[in-house]
Design brief:
mainly alpha; transmembrane; de novo design (two linked rop proteins); single chain; about 190 residues
């Protein structure tokens, strides 16, 4: 009987030696994945904030710049794409298009000195600038969380646990193609 108890204790010790690191790794991966989800949610919140500010900004500018209809259409289309984005890649592409259209809108404002001195426009511009800064920080936080998560899930022995338990790689938030290009604004139309 003592021998069977000893064997049972040895088996339980071996199971514990194997199980505790697996449980610890699993819990760590869950925590890192939650940080990625929270960071993604923060991006969504800031993009929504910007999206909510844009109609007010556009309507303020429309009164001054009625001939700039293409920019207003581009902004509306980009906002629709952003609202319908189903993953991080689509969201980043739509976000880039919206940022491009907004920068073109702000260039148009330079043509209208009265608009630049309009209090509503000044206030909206300040809010938009603050929101753009928040979006940039939220993107950085997301990419940091994704990098930490992806690194953990690829390192040994976490890679074994992550592959067995279905922890998938998360995509980084990347700028859309052409985001580095300067927006083209044509005032000759």
């Amino acid at each position: 009987m003592k021998k069977s108890v000893k064997i049972l204790l040895i088996v339980l010790a071996i199971i514990a030696v194997i199980a505790f690191p697996i449980i610890g790794t699993y819990n760590n991966l869950v925590s890192l994945e939650q940080k990625v989800d929270a960071a993604q949610s923060n991006i969504d919140t800031q993009l929504q904030r910007r999206s909510d500010l844009i109609p007010n900004l556009v309507s303020t500018v429309k009164g001054y710049a009625t001939q700039e209809k293409d920019i207003f259409t581009d902004i509306a289309n980009a906002r629709s794409k952003l609202a319908g984005a189903s993953n991080v890649s689509d969201q980043a592409t739509a976000d880039g298009e919206l940022s491009n259209a907004l920068s073109r809108l702000l260039v148009v404002v330079e043509k209208y000195p009265d608009l630049k001195s309009n209090e509503n426009f000044k206030d909206l511009s300040i809010q938009l600038e603050g929101t753009e800064n928040r979006i940039a920080i939220a993107r950085q936080d997301y990419n940091t969380a994704v990098t930490n998560y992806n690194t953990k899930r690829r390192r040994f022995p976490s890679n074994i646990v992550s592959s067995l338990l279905g922890f998938e790689e998360k995509p980084l938030y990347k700028a859309s193609a052409g985001a580095q290009e300067v927006p083209k604004v044509d005032f000759t139309k």
